[in-house]
Amino acid sequence: AGATSQPQSGKDTHLAYSWGVHTATLYGCAVVLHQPPTALQHLTKHKSRTISCHQLSAQLNNLQLQGDTLSMQVHHLSGCHSLGALVLRKCSGHLTMTPQYVDLQSLVLQTTHSSLQGHIRVSYRKQASPTTPWQDRLQLKIQLQQGTLASQELAHFYPYFQTHTTRYQLSGQVEVPIQDLQLTDFKVIFGQEKSRLQGHMRLRGLPN
Predict the structure, then answer these.
(1) I want to staple 143 with a disulfide (CB 3.0 to 4.6 A). Which of 91, 101, 110, 119 is the partner?
(2) What is the spatial distance between Cα 56 and Cα 89, in angstroms, rounded to a whole number?
(3) How far, CA to CA in Å, does 206 sit from each of 8, 72, 142, 165, 175?
């Protein structure tokens, strides 16, 4: 690891710092959120006031901080949800974080029964005021190259899937502010007879 600092051009009252770490390894870690935001509570049917993940392990390569930009190669990330039934077996990709956006390229995500590959970018709207609802502050762009979602894992979030066992094959692009969902060139294949749904879609008013 190493670190350097140098004055920015023009005004030299602030320093532009940079540092790098070749490899960081985490194991046996846990994350606990007490009284998480309502948006996160709604992601699970249990509506718990505590959301936790345990047995977290990770290998992060080429961590670099240059000014206000942090980047790294996520070689491996795995862990379990507090309920134990949802297991993240692998997550990898190249992560870039700035005050304006979070970008995850070449994403590969695998759980026990599902998998996703693609690119995710979340941007923050500069013109949003502190009182603006969270769903109006974010711009979300997802390029899903291919994905498989299993109903037994979707059932952790939506009880409907508890009695509808199937696997969904997905691809397409999502580019939206959260409250104005637009799907482009999306494709969903599901069921034993390979039913198919594809095309374009726009949904306004989410997540209400």
Answers:
(1) 119
(2) 10
(3) 42, 32, 17, 26, 14
Residue-by-residue DSSP string for 156-199: TT-GGGGG---EEEEEEEEEEETTEEEEEEEEEEETTTTEEEEE
Tokens of 168: 């969904």
Q: Is 7 exposed, middle or buried (0-12, 13-18, 19+ CB in 10 A)?
A: exposed
Q: Which two tokens stand for residue 74?
A: 């996520």
Pair type for strands 15-34 and 138-150: unpaired
Statement: residue 42 has pLDDT above 60:
no
CB 51 within 8 A of CB 39: no
CA distance 111 to 89: 5
| Mean pLDDT of all residues belonging to the chain | 80
Cα distance between residue 181 and residue 26, in whole Å: 36
Name residue, tokens 């942090």.
70
In terms of phi and psi (left: phi > 0; alpha: psi -120 to 50; beta: otherwise), the region of 106 is left
> What mean pLDDT is predicted for residues 75-81?
87
